[in-house]
Amino acid sequence: MENHQIWEFEESLWTGSAEHYRELVDSECLMVLPEPPFVMAGQEAISAVSDTPRWSRVVTSQRQVMRPQEGLIVVGYKVEAYKDDEKGYVAYCTSTYRRLAHGMWKVVQHQQTLPPLAKA
């Protein structure tokens, strides 16, 4: 997958339909999110995120892409996500994709870290 495709794929997970999300997330996915129960796996992770309202717009920055081996992609980035009339959500994220077949990728890991509220 080319870098521009990676970012289109990742952004579609934030803005796409619940069905789209379920299609792209692996049943063996592990997620760490900044809300209880914090650590989720498999169908619990898929349901927790796919059943939430979708974002209308996302902006990603500080993008990093690593390819530690054939068929494995790890990304890190900052996201600013917006719903139509709501204040934005900001987080630092990682996602890991594995290739199941030519052109078929699934998310096997996703993590979101909120920025600190104040500097120490």
**What count of structural domains?**
1
Q: What radius of gyration results from the CA coordinates? A: 14 Å
CATH structural fold name = Nuclear Transport Factor 2, Chain: A
Helix content: 10-25%
| Low-confidence segments | none
CATH architecture: Roll
Largest sheet features? 6 strands, mixed
* Count of strand segments: 6
Counted by DSSP, the helix tally is 3
Strand line-up of the largest beta sheet: 2-1-6-5-4-3
H/E topology pattern: HHEEHEEEE
The rough form would be described as globular
> Helix- and strand-based class?
alpha+beta
Distance between the termini: 39 Å
Oligomer: single chain
Strand content: over 45%
Describe this structure in words.
With 120 residues, this protein is α+β, with helices and mostly antiparallel strands. It has one domain: Nuclear Transport Factor 2, Chain: A (Roll), CATH 3.10.450. Helices cover 24% and strands 48% of the residues. The protein is built from 3 helices and 6 strands; from the N terminus they run ααββαββββ. A 6-stranded mixed sheet has the order 2-1-6-5-4-3. A hairpin with a 6-residue loop joins β1 and β2. α2 runs antiparallel to α3. The model has no long low-confidence stretch (mean pLDDT 92).
